[in-house]
Amino acid sequence: NVGKYPLIINSCKAACGCTVPNCPLDPIMPKETKPMRVRYNTARVGPFKKQITVYSNDQEKPVSIIRIHGVVREKLQ
């Protein structure tokens, strides 16, 4: 949190069901960091690009977009 006040994440939502974000529930105090975990369903082989929308009490930017991308490879035998 680079702001002067506690940051409260109200919710975080993925664009589809194959991506599951887990946002911190407790306020993030100024100069503090907390992890946000995102799980992606790796049943689909190949490249992916997904978007997570984060809603917070930030006065300047109450809605933030986080983009993740990667490649799921076939499991080696």
Give a brief description.
The protein has strands at 9-14, 19-22, 37-40, 46-56, 63-72. With 77 residues, it is mainly beta.
Overview of this structure, please?
This protein is an all-beta fold and 77 residues long. The protein is 0% helix and 45% strand. It has strands at residues 9-14, 19-22, 37-40, 46-56, 63-72. A 3-stranded antiparallel sheet has the order 1-4-5, with no helix packed on it. Strands 2-3 form a two-stranded antiparallel ribbon.
- Strand fraction equals over 45%
Mean pLDDT: 94
The shape is elongated
Integer-rounded radius of gyration: 15 Å
Question: Describe the biggest sheet?
Answer: 3 strands, antiparallel
**Uncertain regions: pLDDT < 50 for 5+ in a row?**
none
Total helices: the number is 0
**DSSP E strands, number:** 5
- Gap between N and C termini, in Å? 44 Å
**N-to-C series of helices and strands:** EEEEE
Range of helix content: under 10%
| Helix-strand category | mainly beta
Strands of the largest sheet, in order across it? 1-4-5
Reconstruct the topology from this structure:
Elements: E1 9-14, E2 19-22, E3 37-40, E4 46-56, E5 63-72
Antiparallel strand pairs: 1-4, 2-3, 4-5
Comma- or semicolon-separated keywords:
two-stranded antiparallel sheet; 5 strands; three-stranded antiparallel β-sheet; 77 residues; mainly beta
